[in-house]
Write a structure and sequence with these properties.
The chain is an alpha/beta fold. It has helices at 2-37, 67-74, 89-98, 102-105, 120-138, 144-149, 199-211, 232-239, 245-270, 306-309, 336-343, 360-365, 381-384, 430-444; strands spanning 42-48, 77-83, 111-112, 154-159, 173-174, 215-220, 277-283, 310-316, 324-326, 331-332, 369-374, 377-378, 385-392, 395-400, 411-414. The protein has 14 helices and 15 strands. Strands 1, 2, 4, 5, 6, 7, 8, 9 and 10 form a 9-stranded mixed sheet that branches. A 4-stranded antiparallel sheet has the order 11-13-14-15. The N and C termini lie far apart (85 Å).
Length: 448
């Protein structure tokens, strides 16, 4: 009997300690929320890497499961008809961080033309030397982290980053060293985020909390990008849905990416930061998996079609941005920086071509956005351009360069009726073609 009383006493004490601990934790979170509420919002950019606009369950895919992004989309101002101006990683990311089109920020492709030799080490050295002037030039750009510094923000880079050291982009801290001699090219150490957990990201957030500063976080994991090496449990799940191992791996990678987004949301929430955090989502470019080969279909990545440049774009700030699933309005990644500036009441510079998606009158007034695709290995704008695009709903015009794509025709699509661009209606609509061509010429000349 005495033994039972002792056990009961011990249980009571343990319970009391747990209760006190829970109470203390709740008080700490409450105190943290109070501090955070007095600051400007934290900003988190979430970037998918090589994923088609179709490859989410909330976008209608019947095979890929993305429960955390589905929930996020339902809580966000979600534009299902978002675009990036180009369908290649480096220039697309440069647009997201600057708010500029590639022709204006100068990052046209992933590499500058360089001498490729049999000696791999020597070839990589040539590549790095050719790209160095692009990095030097980009450092002069006024990036979002640069702008946020004046508002007291601390900025963190994780994941993909092409332009040398993270500090080139204005980040205070980052995972990417960018040293070509140590394998730096498109993210180096940063490519581990998501694939090996979020420990470094968690450390960065804790640093901001310790310094009592609002933060800008760049989460651009190497997902679902190749190598397609998903956890076995996810691969087994998708092997039951397709006879193609390549498709199963890609589909599994999409869900793995979704899971890491969920981990990020939970991390922010556990620290009591969700209510004062702006989350923005976009994908850098599309990807359509070949079922019989470990690569992409030619009409997706690096192509001018919607499977290369279309992406959902989402904005979430609980209690500040009203959730809505917008399936009609066309927006672009050039709008991400202006939208953040609008929310922070920072004046937008005249060189930014985008607009705040929260400015409904401006959004309704704008009737056209542009795209431009250059060679993977580029030199100058004039000698590397492959395609110009103009999107003026319901039409999209693709103009191939007369020199580098001389065997291709001008293509016009009604993307509302023909979202997968199967029916070229250019010949039967010459007036529309000419009108959009003129607007492309104006765009190329530097007019917004």
């Amino acid at each position: 009997m005495r033994t039972l009383n002792k056990i009961g006493f011990i249980i009571f004490i343990v319970g009391a300690l747990v209760s006190c601990g829970n109470k203390a934790n709740k008080e700490a979170v409450k105190h943290q929320k109070k501090i955070v509420a007095e600051q400007p919002p934290n900003i988190v950019f979430i970037l998918s890497d090589d994923q088609s606009w179709t490859d989410y369950s909330f976008m209608g895919d019947k095979n890929i499961e993305t429960p955390r992004l589905d929930q996020f989309a339902s809580e966000s101002l979600t534009f299902t008809r978002g675009y990036v101006p180009t369908s290649l990683c480096s220039p697309s990311l440069a647009t997201i961080i600057t708010g500029l089109y590639p022709k204006d920020h100068g990052v046209l492709g992933n590499d500058v033309v360089y001498e490729k030799v049999k000696n791999t080490k020597e070839s990589k050295k040539n590549r790095a030397e050719a790209y160095a002037p692009i990095i030097t030039q980009f450092e002069k750009q006024n990036t979002l982290p640069d702008i946020l510094k004046d508002k007291g923000y601390v900025s963190f880079q994780t994941g993909k980053w092409w332009l040398g050291n993270h500090k080139i982009g204005g980040f205070d801290y980052g995972m990417t060293h960018g040293d070509a001699k140590r394998g730096g090219r498109h993210g180096d150490y940063g490519l581990e985020i998501g694939r090996t957990g979020l420990d470094t990201l968690n450390t960065y957030v804790d640093l901001a909390l310790k310094e009592k500063k609002p933060f800008f976080l760049w989460y651009a994991p190497f997902l679902p990008h190749r190598p397609h090496t998903p956890p076995q449990r996810l691969l087994d799940k998708y092997l039951k849905k397709t006879d193609s191992e390549y498709e199963a791996k890609y589909w599994a990678m999409c869900e793995w990416f979704d899971e890491t987004c969920g981990e990020l949301f939970d991390l922010i929430d556990d620290k009591g930061l969700t209510e004062n955090t702006l989350f923005v989502y976009v994908c850098d470019n599309g990807w359509v998996q070949k079922p019989d080969m470990d690569t992409y279909e030619k009409h997706s990545k690096r192509a001018p079609y919607d499977l290369g440049i279309r992406t959902p774009i989402m904005y979430k700030w609980a209690g500040k941005i009203k959730p809505k699933m917008d399936t009609e309005t066309v927006v672009s990644s050039i709008d991400m920086v202006p939208t953040v500036l609008d929310l922070l009441d920072i004046e937008q510079s005249n060189n930014l071509p985008g607009i705040s998606v929260l400015d409904t009158p401006k959004l309704e007034k704008r009737d056209i956005i542009f795209g431009e695709i250059y060679a993977h290995d580029f030199t100058t704008i004039e000698s590397s351009i492959f395609y110009n695009m103009a999107i003026q709903t319901p039409y999209k015009l693709i103009v191939p360069d007369a020199v580098r794509k001389s065997d291709e025709k001008v293509q016009l699509f009604n993307i509302e009726e023909d979202p997968f661009e199967k029916n070229n209606i250019a010949e039967s609509n010459p007036e529309i073609v000419e009108s959009l061509k003129k607007q492309i010429l104006s765009f190329r000349a530097g007019n917004k």
